[in-house]
């Protein structure tokens, strides 16, 4: 359980607990090819998130590529689709890793994100108020840049907060060892920063909600340090 410091504008510093000891961070990434670069990238980011104290769930390339094409009018959903939507409804943050194809996201990654339309009429629709970590792998810096921009725009459309830092990984040279570990320190650092920002945002958001609830109970304004 994380502790936050709250300063009431007309009173002393107090402490509250966020009741979010282990935020759930969901990773989405990969292609139909096992152990693709994007799948290894999101798996490494989730490993870093666990080091920050988060719980994680990975929807890997096999899962992503096995989903049917999203059709809004189709009311029936497969067990995999229902599992994904239910998990996303309760997650505290998400990290999405996509390969860059022709300057934008891959079809399977866009397809699984389209499933979030099933949450459009929820009290908390889409990914409202949650952190969205962006990771792109592509053969060249130009596609890395355009794909990262596309992914950020999708995050905004889903009412999420793209993290300040997005990882752009140029896959013209190998980025991961056979065991999934990063070959170079720069790749590892980028993924660690994305993971840290997503986890920290989840904890800060929980702290802010706790502070507002405390202020409402005490009927006095508060600010979070």
Span between N and C termini?
A: 17 Å
**What is the mean predicted local confidence, pLDDT?**
89
Please name the fourth-level CATH homologous superfamily. Flavodoxin domain
Shape assignment: globular
Query: What is the string of SSEs from the N terminus onward?
Result: EEEHEHHEHEHEEHE
Instruction: Tell me what the CATH architecture is.
Output: 3-Layer(aba) Sandwich
Percent in strands: 15-25%
CATH topology: Rossmann fold
Low-confidence stretches: 1-18
Number of domains: 1
What is the count of DSSP helices, taking H or I runs of 4+ residues?
A: 6
- The chain-level structural class is alpha/beta
Question: What's the CATH first level?
Answer: Alpha Beta
Radius of gyration: 19 Å
Q: Describe the main β-sheet briefly.
A: 6 strands, parallel
Report helical residue fraction: 40-55%
Number of strands: 9
Primary descriptors:
9 strands, 6-stranded parallel sheet, globular, 3-stranded antiparallel sheet, Rossmann fold, alpha/beta, 225 residues, disordered N terminus
Give an overview of the whole structure:
The chain has 225 residues and is an alpha/beta fold. The chain has a single domain (3-224), classed as 3-Layer(aba) Sandwich (Rossmann fold), CATH 3.40.50.360. The chain is built from six helices and nine strands, in the order βββαβααβαβαββαβ. It has helices at 37-51, 61-66, 79-90, 107-114, 141-157, 185-218, and strands spanning 3-8, 13-17, 24-29, 55-59, 93-99, 131-138, 161-162, 167-170, 222-224. Strands 3, 4, 5, 6, 7 and 8 form a six-stranded parallel sheet that branches. Strands 2-1-9 form a three-stranded antiparallel sheet, with helices on one face. The model is unreliable at 1-18 (pLDDT under 50).
